[in-house]
UniProtKB/TrEMBL annotation:
Belongs to the small heat shock protein (HSP20) family. It holds the Pfam family HSP20. This is HSP20 family protein. Residues 24-134 form the SHSP domain. It comes from the Bacteria.
Length: 143
């Protein structure tokens, strides 16, 4: 059985969560995220344990991706001993650069993790530029 803890320990833990380890103000994240680029794809993963996949809403408007999810409240009159997992509706927005192709985002939800794969836009990929010389122009005129 889970035992109630010392209220001073709870207050100390809350202060650490709010202030962070170095004394600066930290916001606890309801939807922790990792993001990285691998080749021509930008990947983002959101931790959403206990969330029904049907409650996840993913919207893209211009270069802003919005993720909304809901973890329902418990429908019980039982006495709550601990409540550290956020409940209700929460959301997170990502502002993406113009170098990503938001028309072709792929999303997957598996074992509590929402994964997005966003391809780099063709216009943002490195490409070779042909260099013309005077000889090329002369050959085109004489041909």
């Amino acid at each position: 059985m889970l035992m109630r803890t010392d209220p001073f320990r709870d207050l100390d833990r809350f202060a650490q969560q709010m202030l962070g380890t170095n004394g600066t103000l930290a916001r606890p994240s309801v939807m922790p995220m990792d993001a990285w680029r691998d080749g021509d794809t930008f990947h983002v993963e959101f931790d959403l344990p206990g969330v029904d996949p049907g409650s996840i809403d993913l919207d893209v408007e211009r270069n802003v991706v919005t993720v909304r999810a809901e973890r329902p409240n418990r429908a019980s009159d039982a006495e709550l001993i601990a409540a550290e997992r956020p409940r209700g509706v929460f959301s997170r927005q990502l502002v993406l650069g113009d170098n990503l192709d938001t028309e072709h985002i792929e999303a997957h939800y598996d074992t509590g993790v929402l994964s997005l794969a966003i391809p780099v836009a063709e216009k943002a990929k490195p490409r070779k530029i042909a260099i013309a010389t005077k000889d090329d122009q002369r050959q085109a005129i004489g041909a």
